[in-house]
Amino acid sequence: MNEHNPIAQEINKIQQHWRKGVYNRPGLRLVRLVIKPEEARLYEGFCKLESTAHGQLEEVFVTHLTPFENEDTFSTNLIKDWLETYDGSTELLKEMEQRGAALHWDAHPYRQALAYDAQAPQDALLLQMLQTFREALPFQPRELVLALLPRQVSDTRSFASWLASLLKRGIPAGIKLLVIDHVNKDHLAINERPFPGQVLSMHIPLQLENAIQKLATSGNPNDPEVQYRKCLFEMGNALKDKDLKRLHYWGQRMLDCTQRSGNKGLFATAHISYAGMLFNFKRDPKLPLLLEKGGRIARQGMQHGDPACLPLVIQFYGYQGAYAQIRKRFTEAIDWFIKQAATAQEHKFLPQAMNAWYQAAELCRRKDTSRYYTVLEQAYQGGIEMNDDEITTSVYSYLVRDYHDYAYTNKLTTVVHDINEKMKRLFGENWKEEIDRMKKSRTRMIMQPQIETETEDASSS
Q1: Is the pTM of this model over 0.70?
Q2: pLDDT tens, 107-141?
Q3: Strands, DSSP E only, in 259-388?
């Protein structure tokens, strides 16, 4: 890793604090890194880096993104993902053997145990698997760190309860679990009193924003993209200060430098970036002008074959829908969201299409019920080609859940059968209850930055 890279320097800080806080604590079993939401991707990068041969720490890291659905199935799903990853590591295992660092680990008992009783909670089996894997690592003694960064968490309280249950059961020596939590949220805080010396919560002071700004604005100062990024950071600072005049100053500079570039994709991006910030001052008369002009530029670029412009066109349609919605022009907003969904679907951006269908459907449900089931049906049909991962990690499952009720009421037998078969396979026998629970909690995944929309300052309207 390039030590002069500002992001690399921040990762070095994490490594240094890890050594200082974690080393020489043999009883430690659970490390909870407490981070700011915007630092999430950096920490994910740290875990993934340490899971490779380029890691700098002494422990062997294994990073898993396995979604957390509930306490009873998480250990089982981790074992399945672990075995699948192990099976796909043939080349790496051969390379290790050639280097004289062979890993001789027998995965058969764990496959056999899952096949025998896949429905039972497998916490003890998971701990046994981690212990035997650690003992098989070359160059003993080695410590093993299992970094858990779930793509999605259905219930953070249950996730914390699962961690506590593993601590109660007894995590073997030489093994640590690593989880990520957010500052001032304490979703995964564990009562340390029953587990003296086993739990460490650690916050590392980073300067990520400065590092990103240094990285983004490095290079030729006359490069339009460098100029664009500089303006964007200055606009972000103005927005934090709620300084609308300064925001407009840097916004206009951004439009000017990107227009001179002759790059329609960059020019359209400047418009949507500027407009996005003005949503915090939604009565500003420049907002609709930016949306209209930026959308027109993006469509022109798309017609001329600029690949960067198609996603921008789709994004502009969504922004137009959001702007119509905040002005309470609900029919217009629904039309924009449908247009966004149809365009994304046409070009096979299916998860993005489902987000737009969901926006349209929810708005219909609340403001125009006569269109609700038509939109639901279009959304259902539009997502039939989605793969399993896209279905389970998108809002498509919510749309399917609601459309199932409509299809059942209207005796659409084939549709009901098809939905039941697919959803049972993905979410289990009680798939409707599971999706209802997911929709109700709508808990964001731990590693996903949580961007809170700032309310408009009344004095600036």
Answers
A1: no
A2: 999 999 888 776 667 899 999 999 999 999 988 88
A3: none
Q: Which helix (H) or strand (E) holds 325?
A: helix 309-326
For residues 169-208, b (16+ Cβ closer than 10 Å) or e, as one string? eebeebbbbbbbbbeeeebbebeeeebeebbbbeebebeb
Contacts of 408 (CB under 8 A, 6+ apart): 416
Main-chain dihedrals φ then ψ at residue 366, nearest 5 degrees: -90, -30
For residue 371, what are the contacts with CB-CB under 8 A and spacing of at least 6? 334, 364
Strand ranges of the sheet holding 30-35, from the earlier edge strand across to the other edge: 60-64, 144-148, 175-182, 30-35, 199-203
Pick from 75, 43, 76, 87: nearest CA to 61: 43
Residue 318 has pLDDT above 80, yes or no: yes
Quote the CA–CA distance of 63 and 447 in Å, as a whole number. 13
Distance between CA atoms of 162 and 74, rounded to whole angstroms?
Answer: 8
Give the integer Cα–Cα distance in Å for 302 and 452.
31
Q: Is 24 left (phi over 0), alpha (psi -120 to 50) or beta?
A: left
> Residue 26: is the preceding peptide bond cis (ω within 30°)?
no
pLDDT value at residue 460 = 35
